[in-house]
Amino acid sequence: MSSTSTASMVDVELQPGRPPLLRAEATGGAAGWAAAHRDALRAVVAEHGCVLVRGLGLRDAAETGAVFSKLATGLMTEKEVFAPRRTYSDGVYSSTKWPPNQPMCMHHELSYTLEFPGLMMFACLSAPTDGGATAVADAPTVLDALPAELTQRFEREGWLLTRSYNDEIGASVAEAFGTEDRAAVERYCRANAIAFEWQPDGGLRTRQRRSAVVSHPVTGRRCWFNQIAFLNEWTMAPEVREYLMDVYGADGLPFNTRFGNGDPIGEDVVEQLNSVYEAHTAREPWQAGDLMLVDNIRTAHSREPFEGPREVLVALADPVRLTDCSPTVEVTAS
């Protein structure tokens, strides 16, 4: 069915199990269309949490960057990445480098930082032959669907992210912090409530505690906002987890998540989180030229396994501070 919102005044196709779809006719060029429809697109995102725009015919990084700039209030430089990206231009990145056969399960981008994007933008320049959708899930709906006892514990305690940086897997210290200078890394950690410990081999281990539930800064709606499942050891493919545990040990995994008090999160909890996400997932296969806008606080996103070449560019936009989202736990390093 279609829905013309009085807020957006554009025709949006709404179908169960699929993200809202808007068909564009960019006869004057994608950037011009984006500039003309900026307010309408942002109103659709405010109403529905996301929108997939089809018909822009985005072809390259320069054109995509121009569209991103027209739609955003401000583009962000990514910090604390968990896996590397390619930088095309200021604020325009490749998708995270992640094995094509491994899913990137539902998460909210940079939910473990003190300043994160309020808006995510994705542009598909080359669609895979199979799979690879950027799927979405509504965070307030997910929160309501999870067991109250579990969400209440996470509200009380928050969640803990532990990271172990090395030069073999995941993002390096330089990729995550933008520098190899130890003093600069330490300054960043202290300023951003991250506990750190340098290892004898030169590696770095960090811990940071964050809220698992936040309030949307505009609507006030409570959202399940974190990367608890995605960055947990039990979301990894079994053979990958076993290899990493064997090589690096339980404390040396490139990333892992725990309850806010430090207790391990069991496989059953992670399976429960991912199953609730799956029950509320909307997906639409990418077509070359597509654009997708996602409210990063209200809407989780994922990347499904794929085959064939896939080029999706990403921008992190409209920075929001955690302190403006009514965090439920005090920001601490651990």
TrEMBL record:
> Which biological process, per GO, is one annotated for this protein?
antibiotic biosynthetic process
The segment(s) forming the TauD/TfdA-like domain are 34-315
Keyword list (alphabetical) reads: Antibiotic biosynthesis, Iron, Oxidoreductase
Domain of life, per UniProt, equals: Bacteria
As cofactor, the record names:
Fe(2+)
Q: Gene3D superfamilies recorded for this chain?
A: Clavaminate synthase-like (3.60.130.10)
The Gene Ontology terms for molecular function here are: oxidoreductase activity
Record-linked PANTHER family: GAMMA-BUTYROBETAINE HYDROXYLASE-RELATED (PTHR10696), TAUD_TFDA-LIKE DOMAIN-CONTAINING PROTEIN (PTHR10696:SF56)
Name the record gives this protein:
TauD/TfdA-like domain-containing protein
